[in-house]
Amino acid sequence: MREWAIIISVLCLCGIGNAVQTPSGNTELVTRRISDIRGIRPVPDAVQDAKEACLTCDICVVGGGSGGIGAATAAARAGTDVILVEREPALGGTSTRGGVSVWASGPGCALAREIYERLAARTNGVARTDYNRTLTRRSGNTLPFNPDVFDGVVTDMLRETGCCRVLLNTCFVAATVDPQAKRVDSVQTVGTDGVTSRITAKVFVDCTGDGVLCQAAGCKTLLGAEPKSRFNEPSAPAEPKNILNALELIYRIRKSPTPVLQPLPEGVKPRWREGKVSCCTDRLPGTQIRIINPCGLIPGWMLIEKGYDDTLVEAKRQALAHWHVYQKQRKGYTFDSFSPLLAIRESYRIEGDYVLTENDVKTAFALSPHPDLIAYADHPMDTHGSGGGLREAAAPYGIPYRCLIPKGGWSNLLIACRGASFSHIAASSCRLQRTMLQLGHAAGLAAVQCVSRRCGVRQVDVSVLQKQLEIPQPVAMKENNNKTP
Question: For all residues of the chain together, what is the average pLDDT?
Fold first, then answer.
């Protein structure tokens, strides 16, 4: 039987369009579509016989979540011509449209600090706190923010560069690649209005969460829990498993003098006991609204088995069942609304030049053997509903640049999102929003080097990246692992 946790051939998932010759006539360009990737949200139908718009840029960032914001901002501030493609009507992804409008405690880069400062300068933008006290897991201090204000802040940051075109309500549907040169030539998009565009760029950064651009390009994909034999992870199962970190449908409740009692949805048996409902809850700054994260609402693998739309329907039923029980602990509150999107912790991951594993998460940054670290993280290995509990990282650990480079020799393609090159266990730790912002920040600056130096993603001078990102060299690299700091 096929083992889904092992590498999946994307060519079995993606429809392949017609091949066309390059101007030289020597190489064929192949268009691969994402329509058959299981669990991916359906895209709008294109208007038949409508003229396709053709756009060009230096760097195309696909996906406007945390990683995409970091990549597009960093690249555009360097003066390169950037196009950012986002299928939603607002930027932020899971942090806005997915309802997870709170930064968990943990490290962040300079862009994260700037976003916080801009949020703090606006009315009801963010919960006021000492930002420095939110930068470690042990502090436990989180940062709830207003998602609408967040969208406004990052939109202004991109607009101010004068170098970034943001295409909202625009879905990625296909990639045209040169399979011999291992280059992405262009991407095809479709708007919610059915109008299609083709975007040609020198460098592409996949920030889609699911790595769909990389999948369409033909990159190797990981899905599910890998066996212990794959990466020698102590906590990995003996055999591969069809499990993913649980997903949520975040909902809101609001203060009300006449709260409406939530009936139990038909056919749903609540899993929560009265008076002992666990969840994460934060108040939306400046309002009487609370954001409720049930923390393990739906098994993540349902997304692969049933598809996005059917999973969303079931998630709504389960969220209402959660509120049916939890409202007895929240006197004076009534149901307000669902978030527009599922909050997905894990789905497809792209195998890169290096795969981050549990062993890396357990290695303190200062002792890391990797010379190309470009980000910090310190969140637990937090496998909600997928066979494990919280396993704390003893100290902040590092993420190598090679995790952003898809395996297979691709020369102009990077990935900076939860779908980057992580094992199932490592992904459960480094999936947080500020971590993704760091990865995007690094990918954007790396893409700028590719454009300015006319080099491939593997020829990027990582030491320059580290200086720009203010990443120190690990002590272990300096002292050949002979001393402990």
Answer: 90
Main-chain phi, psi angles of 255, to 5 degrees:
-60, 140
Angle at CA 282, nearest 5°, toward 279 and 288? 120
Outline where 296-432 has alpha helix (H).
Answer: 302-306, 308-326, 358-361, 424-427
Residue type at 320 in one-letter notation: L
Name the nearest CA neighbour of 353 among 411, 305, 283, 274.
Answer: 411
Tokens 């699911």 sit at which residue?
210
Give the burial class of 392: count Cβ atoms within 10 A of its Cβ; 0-12 exposed, 13-18 middle, 19 or more buried: middle
Query: How much is the pTM?
Result: 0.92
- Of 338, 371, 396, the residue that ends a domain is 338
pLDDT of residue 28: 78
The Cα 252–Cα 290 span in angstroms is 6
Q: What is the pLDDT of residues 17-49, one digit of tens each?
A: 444 444 434 457 888 888 889 999 999 888 887
Sole residue written with tokens 């207003």: 146
Residue keyed to tokens 């609408």: 148
CATH number of the domain that 77 lies in? 3.50.50.60
pLDDT surpasses 80 at 325: yes
- Kindly state the tokens that stand for 465: 């990246």
213 domain-assigned: yes
Place of tokens 């990865």: 439
| Residue 228 clears pLDDT 60, i.e. is over it | yes
Structural domain that includes position 357: 1-129+145-231+349-485
Residues 189 and 324 in one domain: no
Q: Give the Cα separation of 65 and 37 in Å (integer).
A: 20
Does residue 215 sit in the same domain as residue 117? yes
Which 3 state secondary structure label does DSSP give 50?
coil
DSSP 275-286: T----EEEEPTT
Phi, psi of 405 (to 5 degrees): -105, 110
Distance between CA atoms of residues 391 and 165, nearest Å? 41
In a domain, 105, yes or no: yes
Which residue type sits at 126? V
pLDDT of residue 301: 95
| Banded pLDDT at 391 (limits 50, 70, 90) | confident
Q: What percent of the chain has pLDDT over 90?
A: 79
